[in-house]
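Researcher: For the annotation table, I need C-alpha coordinates for DUF4142 domain-containing protein. Please keep the output clean. Sequence:
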Amino acid sequence: MKRSAIVVAALATTLFSAAPVAALAQTQAASQTLGNDLPPTDKAFVQAASSAGSTEIDAAKLATKQSQDADVKSFAHHMMIDHTKLAIQLKMAAPSGVTVPKDNSDPSVLDSLKALHGKQFDEAYIQKLGVQGHQEAVQAFQKEAQEGQNAKLKEAAQKALPTIEKHLQMAQQLAAKKGIQ
Protein backbone atom coordinates (compact mmCIF):
# COMPACT_ATOMS: atom_id res chain seq x y z
CA MET A 1 0.00 0.00 0.00
CA LYS A 2 2.79 2.38 0.91
CA ARG A 3 4.61 1.69 -2.35
CA SER A 4 1.52 2.40 -4.47
CA ALA A 5 1.08 5.73 -2.66
CA ILE A 6 4.65 6.65 -3.58
CA VAL A 7 4.06 5.67 -7.22
CA VAL A 8 0.85 7.72 -7.34
CA ALA A 9 2.62 10.69 -5.77
CA ALA A 10 5.48 10.42 -8.26
CA LEU A 11 3.05 10.16 -11.18
CA ALA A 12 1.07 13.17 -9.98
CA THR A 13 4.25 15.19 -9.57
CA THR A 14 5.30 14.27 -13.10
CA LEU A 15 1.93 15.17 -14.59
CA PHE A 16 1.59 18.47 -12.77
CA SER A 17 5.15 19.51 -13.50
CA ALA A 18 4.91 19.02 -17.29
CA ALA A 19 3.33 22.43 -18.00
CA PRO A 20 5.89 24.41 -15.98
CA VAL A 21 8.70 22.66 -17.88
CA ALA A 22 7.49 24.20 -21.16
CA ALA A 23 7.16 27.61 -19.53
CA LEU A 24 10.59 27.19 -17.94
CA ALA A 25 12.12 26.33 -21.32
CA GLN A 26 10.66 29.50 -22.80
CA THR A 27 11.84 31.57 -19.82
CA GLN A 28 15.34 30.10 -20.14
CA ALA A 29 15.36 30.86 -23.86
CA ALA A 30 14.33 34.46 -23.16
CA SER A 31 17.05 34.82 -20.54
CA GLN A 32 19.60 33.43 -23.02
CA THR A 33 18.53 36.06 -25.50
CA LEU A 34 18.65 38.82 -22.90
CA GLY A 35 22.16 37.72 -21.99
CA ASN A 36 23.35 38.26 -25.55
CA ASP A 37 25.61 41.22 -26.19
CA LEU A 38 23.33 42.90 -28.71
CA PRO A 39 21.49 46.22 -28.96
CA PRO A 40 17.91 46.02 -27.58
CA THR A 41 16.22 45.99 -31.01
CA ASP A 42 18.38 43.08 -32.14
CA LYS A 43 17.82 41.17 -28.88
CA ALA A 44 14.07 41.59 -29.24
CA PHE A 45 14.25 40.38 -32.83
CA VAL A 46 16.29 37.27 -31.99
CA GLN A 47 13.81 36.36 -29.24
CA ALA A 48 10.70 37.09 -31.34
CA ALA A 49 11.99 35.35 -34.47
CA SER A 50 13.21 32.24 -32.65
CA SER A 51 10.03 31.94 -30.58
CA ALA A 52 7.73 32.49 -33.57
CA GLY A 53 9.63 29.99 -35.68
CA SER A 54 9.73 27.35 -32.97
CA THR A 55 6.01 27.81 -32.26
CA GLU A 56 5.21 27.55 -35.99
CA ILE A 57 7.16 24.30 -36.31
CA ASP A 58 5.60 22.69 -33.24
CA ALA A 59 2.08 23.82 -34.17
CA ALA A 60 2.56 22.51 -37.71
CA LYS A 61 3.53 19.13 -36.27
CA LEU A 62 0.28 19.18 -34.28
CA ALA A 63 -1.64 20.09 -37.42
CA THR A 64 -0.32 17.05 -39.26
CA LYS A 65 -1.80 14.89 -36.48
CA GLN A 66 -4.94 16.73 -35.45
CA SER A 67 -6.31 18.12 -38.69
CA GLN A 68 -8.34 16.11 -41.15
CA ASP A 69 -8.18 18.82 -43.82
CA ALA A 70 -5.74 18.32 -46.72
CA ASP A 71 -5.32 22.09 -47.24
CA VAL A 72 -4.47 22.65 -43.58
CA LYS A 73 -2.02 19.75 -43.59
CA SER A 74 -0.38 21.08 -46.75
CA PHE A 75 -0.03 24.55 -45.22
CA ALA A 76 1.41 23.02 -42.03
CA HIS A 77 3.94 20.99 -44.00
CA HIS A 78 5.01 24.13 -45.84
CA MET A 79 5.40 25.97 -42.51
CA MET A 80 7.57 23.18 -41.05
CA ILE A 81 9.95 23.27 -44.00
CA ASP A 82 10.21 27.05 -44.33
CA HIS A 83 10.45 27.82 -40.62
CA THR A 84 13.15 25.18 -40.17
CA LYS A 85 15.14 26.90 -42.94
CA LEU A 86 14.50 30.32 -41.40
CA ALA A 87 15.71 29.08 -38.00
CA ILE A 88 18.96 27.90 -39.58
CA GLN A 89 19.39 31.22 -41.37
CA LEU A 90 18.82 33.12 -38.11
CA LYS A 91 21.47 31.03 -36.33
CA MET A 92 23.91 31.58 -39.19
CA ALA A 93 23.30 35.35 -39.10
CA ALA A 94 23.82 35.61 -35.35
CA PRO A 95 27.17 37.12 -34.43
CA SER A 96 29.78 34.97 -32.75
CA GLY A 97 28.93 34.41 -29.10
CA VAL A 98 25.23 35.20 -29.56
CA THR A 99 22.92 32.40 -28.48
CA VAL A 100 19.82 31.91 -30.58
CA PRO A 101 17.30 30.07 -28.41
CA LYS A 102 15.87 26.84 -29.75
CA ASP A 103 12.81 24.91 -28.65
CA ASN A 104 11.27 28.04 -27.17
CA SER A 105 7.74 27.65 -28.49
CA ASP A 106 4.98 29.60 -26.83
CA PRO A 107 3.39 27.00 -24.51
CA SER A 108 0.11 28.93 -24.21
CA VAL A 109 -0.43 28.81 -27.98
CA LEU A 110 0.44 25.12 -28.23
CA ASP A 111 -1.65 24.20 -25.17
CA SER A 112 -4.67 25.99 -26.64
CA LEU A 113 -4.37 23.82 -29.76
CA LYS A 114 -3.64 20.44 -28.15
CA ALA A 115 -7.19 19.87 -26.96
CA LEU A 116 -8.72 20.64 -30.35
CA HIS A 117 -9.33 18.32 -33.29
CA GLY A 118 -10.84 18.50 -36.75
CA LYS A 119 -12.57 21.72 -37.79
CA GLN A 120 -12.09 23.37 -34.37
CA PHE A 121 -8.37 22.73 -34.57
CA ASP A 122 -8.20 23.98 -38.16
CA GLU A 123 -9.93 27.25 -37.32
CA ALA A 124 -7.75 27.95 -34.29
CA TYR A 125 -4.55 26.94 -36.10
CA ILE A 126 -5.27 29.05 -39.17
CA GLN A 127 -6.35 32.07 -37.14
CA LYS A 128 -3.77 32.00 -34.30
CA LEU A 129 -0.70 30.77 -36.14
CA GLY A 130 -1.43 31.28 -39.79
CA VAL A 131 -2.87 34.77 -39.78
CA GLN A 132 -2.19 36.36 -36.38
CA GLY A 133 1.20 34.70 -35.89
CA HIS A 134 2.44 35.78 -39.28
CA GLN A 135 1.09 39.33 -38.85
CA GLU A 136 3.19 39.59 -35.69
CA ALA A 137 6.19 38.00 -37.40
CA VAL A 138 5.97 40.43 -40.33
CA GLN A 139 6.02 43.32 -37.86
CA ALA A 140 9.06 41.90 -36.02
CA PHE A 141 10.98 41.26 -39.24
CA GLN A 142 10.08 44.70 -40.65
CA LYS A 143 11.23 46.39 -37.45
CA GLU A 144 14.57 44.57 -37.54
CA ALA A 145 14.99 45.27 -41.27
CA GLN A 146 14.43 48.99 -40.64
CA GLU A 147 15.87 49.57 -37.17
CA GLY A 148 18.25 46.68 -36.51
CA GLN A 149 21.77 47.66 -35.56
CA ASN A 150 23.54 44.37 -36.19
CA ALA A 151 24.25 44.23 -39.93
CA LYS A 152 24.00 40.43 -40.23
CA LEU A 153 20.71 40.20 -38.32
CA LYS A 154 19.29 43.15 -40.24
CA GLU A 155 20.23 41.51 -43.54
CA ALA A 156 18.77 38.17 -42.41
CA ALA A 157 15.49 39.91 -41.54
CA GLN A 158 15.42 41.64 -44.94
CA LYS A 159 16.05 38.34 -46.74
CA ALA A 160 13.43 36.45 -44.71
CA LEU A 161 10.73 39.11 -44.86
CA PRO A 162 9.35 38.11 -48.30
CA THR A 163 8.95 34.51 -47.08
CA ILE A 164 7.12 35.61 -43.91
CA GLU A 165 4.89 37.93 -45.97
CA LYS A 166 4.15 35.06 -48.36
CA HIS A 167 3.18 32.88 -45.37
CA LEU A 168 0.78 35.59 -44.20
CA GLN A 169 -0.75 35.77 -47.66
CA MET A 170 -1.09 31.97 -47.80
CA ALA A 171 -2.73 31.95 -44.36
CA GLN A 172 -5.16 34.70 -45.34
CA GLN A 173 -6.09 32.81 -48.52
CA LEU A 174 -6.58 29.59 -46.54
CA ALA A 175 -8.72 31.41 -43.98
CA ALA A 176 -10.85 32.89 -46.76
CA LYS A 177 -11.21 29.50 -48.45
CA LYS A 178 -12.32 27.89 -45.17
CA GLY A 179 -14.60 30.79 -44.20
CA ILE A 180 -12.52 31.70 -41.12
CA GLN A 181 -12.51 35.30 -40.00
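Researcher: And a one-line annotation?
Model: The first helix runs from residue 2 to 34.
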